[in-house]
Protein 1
Amino acid sequence: MSWLEIVALIAGFLLVIAIIWWVRTARRLDGLHRTVVQSRAMLGDALAERARESSAFAACRALDMAGAILLAEAAAEATEAEHLPLVDDGLVLRPAPKRTPVDRRLLESNLSRTLRLVLEDLPAEELTDEQNTRLSKLNEAREDVRLSRRFHNTKVDQARRLRSGRLVRLTKMAGRAGLPEPVDMDDE
């Protein structure tokens, strides 16, 4: 074998390795983008469930009048904003409304703060069985929101890290997909 054939063989081998790397990385990036979109939908569902449970808890007479009114208003505002996107990064295919004056994350954060405020000194031993059941469902919904948001933000971080690589940017592997944005809000 001549040196030219050896160089051609090595170049062909390196080309095959590069193509395999590119295909695997593109598939991984596509999978991460899909997971981000799915996890954002799960987070939206969890937020909607929390708003419904908050509204139901406000109506079950476990809180004083002021707390019930505060919680019902915060839950109603969050429910009205369910159709708004959590972030506008272009990954979700449904058309987003043009620049809305309301940020859904602020409304959801307001509901979180209101829940903390009204549940902070709630005497659990004075609640009826029905009220305890409502409180338990509300706490489950709150935990679902926390876990969904953490999962979503973890996947966003993985996608952003993969997209920040030089070769991924150089080969424009992400195509026209928007850069995933984390959902930053108060969910405690």
Protein 2
Amino acid sequence: MTQQVLYGTIISKEGITIETRTGFLISQIKQVQGRVFQRLLAECGVEEFNGPQGNLLYLLWQADSVPIADLVKRSGLAKNTLTAMLARMETAGLVTRTPGSGDRRQVIIHLTPKARGLEGKYHQVSQQMNCLFYQGMSQEDAQTLDGLLDRVLANLEAQEKKIKLKKREDG
């Protein structure tokens, strides 16, 4: 079934119109989950970082001592946004920055022992969030939801690449 999407409305090849709220719902979910996550962190005794900083810490717990350029790619954040967040995290004693050994212009981000010590509490809160996300859903429902969201993300990332390519070609 080929679909044409206009302003939150999907018009199928068969001419059936379905109103959608996906973008609105994703935005609302992001806002509410951020507030809930922050509250759960506080209840768990974690006040050293906020939710968005926790996302960066999560990436660094997966692979420490990485160039900022890698974090830009993995986080999806703009370099200037990431740099400002890392500055606040450095002030809080969560990360350090060092010049790259081969290229002094490259900046490498390292976790501090303080940040490593918070990983367990972060994972505890993340598990609580997962339980909230999938409350009342079967495992099949949860997998379907994740698969659909992966497709939405892939669609948006593909469009973003097209925009960047066009921008390079035009400018």
Protein 3
Amino acid sequence: MKTGIKEYRITEPLSRTIETYLLKNGKFVLDDVYTSLYGYEELTEEEKNYKKEVPVSLYDNFKIPVDDIFANLFKRGNLQYTKL
């Protein structure tokens, strides 16, 4: 590949998930799934271990907090909190 997209994400606001796909051997493959638990008061041990930042593979040490991506949706009252 000479130029083009090396990664992309699918963001789903209702489930508060972000799927990251990376280009590997000429095909996009699912690299990881990130989930926001913004607004939850009580978390299970499993939920506490969720990945909290989405790395951007094009830059070293650049990560986006998952909760920040979805926080405005809830602050404005556009979506309701629902247990996943």
Protein 4
Amino acid sequence: MESNLMTLLTFSIYGIMISMTYTKYFLITIPNERNEIHMNLSDLARNSYMLRGSFARRGYMRWWHSFVGVNVETGKPRTFFVEFFMINPNLGSNHPILGQHPYYKKRGMSPSYVMVKAGAFPDENDENGKQLHAFYPISSLQITGNPLVMRMNIPSPETSPLSMDHTQENTCFYSEDRLTGSIVISPQKARHRSLMTDFGSMEWELEVCKAVSCHTGLLGGRLFQMLHILDNYWHGEGIRSFFRGSVILDGDVYEVTPEHSYGYADKHWGRNFHNPWFQFSCGNLTSQRTGKELRHSVLAINSFYPRLLCFPLRRRFMLQMTYMGEDFEFTNCKWEVKETDRRFIWHILARNKNSVLKLSGSCKKEDMLHLRYEAPDGQLCRLPLWAGADGIGTLQLYRKGTGGRELLDTLKLENAMCIYRKEETTENA
């Protein structure tokens, strides 16, 4: 008996050592050796529906879009967002299961629904931020594979067991080049905490052209998902996007034009949210060398947190800088964040074998709102998820050479999107 236990223990130790070796190889060696291989690669298959297996029973998927529109009467800009969010689809039925509602909490039911989140960020004109949530049952979703098309149809009110109908009365549509929909939330409905929504109305009719993408390679591939090496995954299909169309927010009409939309689109999916959570992106870049705005340049940063079995490993970043048609990719990044009473400040130093990038950015808290989600296990994070679209910063890009580093350009960043939540621990939970 003891001999069998020792044999099993020996094989377990060897298995852990092999897993550690391969995890280190995939997470460190391969990304650093691929610096000259473009992450700027469109992959509509990876941007499609991927919640299968255990992810379908405990998992989420979110397609995010943000863009700038101009008020047709005042001429003032405003940054909007439209997101399609899906959670635990295999647990769904013909009504949305809201994890924060007492009816479902009492029965120990995990959330399962499709949510369309739409709204606007606070801005320098003292306009308050707003996020509106429309919930649909999984059964109302019509979806295709590749390329992805989603349509949320209007469900029958009689299908809900609740005295208050939480479902939305309008159809929303998503495709790779078109977004349409509307949400109307009354003050009475917004008082229900389980909806996690503000009140108001928003209608959108948009065309999308996704010009620059960020492909995460092996880090978002099937092998990593099968082994659950990451809790969440990222694919940037459209980190530089051009939007055209219109938005009506609480009766105010906004025009969205490609040249001033500064659009961004990406997708996240996995078993749980980032902890901590950090995203930073900017498509409004001005060159100090030429004094001109760079139309087809963009910066995108996303954090990810690998693990071995149940043990978390050191957090890492994926950073893509597309500058004047040339792509620079980094996974070797150092960062620090400082929080004051009025703003968040980030400093990032990124290196690969050919280049160096230095970034200093900040975002005022008064220009941010708290995005609200519930996790696949039905829990709400106690720490706020700060999000804003009026970040500023300075970026220096260097190329390495035999004679040292050569400064390619210094860029001024405006209208940067910042999403941040510090790490949740047992002390601050």
